[in-house]
Write a structure and sequence with these properties.
Strand order of the largest sheet: 1-2-3
Number of domains: 1
Distance between the termini: 40 Å
Pfam families: DinB
CATH class: Mainly Alpha
Family: Belongs to the DinB family.
Number of strands: 3
Radius of gyration: 17 Å
InterPro entries: DinB (IPR007837), DinB/YfiT-like (IPR034660)
Strand content: 5-15%
Order of helices and strands: HHEHHEEH
CATH superfamily: dinb family like domain
Structural class: mainly alpha
Largest sheet: 3 strands, mixed
Helix content: 40-55%
Keywords: Metal-binding
Protein name: Damage-inducible protein DinB
């Protein structure tokens, strides 16, 4: 009987989802960066940047044991990308860093807890592997889904992510 590891499962899922996310980001029009479908919504560019920056955050789950939002010295993503090329370059860089961190980890390390907190207030504490899946991948997929709605509302063809989209039939 063949069993696969937590690490192998996360890497397989990550590779699939990163390819789908890049396809989506490739269609985000920088010339409509300020577009918001609703006053409470993030702008198109804020949302696209957030999807990319979540990759760096996900890397923290693998490499560190905790992250305090009040720590002024804690790692933070770079400034907002100022072009479509810069957004995709950051996506590629953060994707490679996350893959490298996961390849450098193992099942045993991924069972260690990660704590996300703001000072004494714990926001989340769970095994690193679960944090990568829930707060990393699932969170990113959620926001990618929002991006596809923005694309639809802007009449930009939506890529097929789990099969053909209405635009690809």
């Amino acid at each position: 009987m063949h069993t696969s590891s937590i690490q192998q499962n996360i890497l397989a899922e990550l590779d699939h989802e990163l390819a789908q996310t890049r396809k989506t980001l490739e269609r985000v029009p920088f010339d409509q960066a300020d577009y918001k479908p609703h006053p409470k919504s993030m702008s198109l560019w804020q949302l696209a940047t957030h999807v990319v920056n979540l990759l760096a955050f996900n890397t923290l789950f693998v490499q560190l044991d905790s992250r305090d939002f009040l720590d002024p010295n804690a790692p933070k993503p770079g400034p907002t990308p100022t072009s479509h090329d810069e957004l995709l370059a950051r996506f590629d860089e953060y994707s490679a860093t996350l893959r490298q961190a996961l390849h450098g980890s193992d099942d045993e390390k991924l069972t260690h807890n990660f704590k996300l907190h703001r000072g004494e207030h714990t926001i989340m504490e769970m095994p690193k592997g679960a944090a990568v899946r829930i707060m990393g991948l699932n969170h990113s997929i959620h926001h990618r889904g929002q991006l596809t709605v923005y694309l639809r509302l802007l009449d930009i063809p939506v890529p097929g992510l789990y099969g053909p989209s209405a635009d690809e039939k």
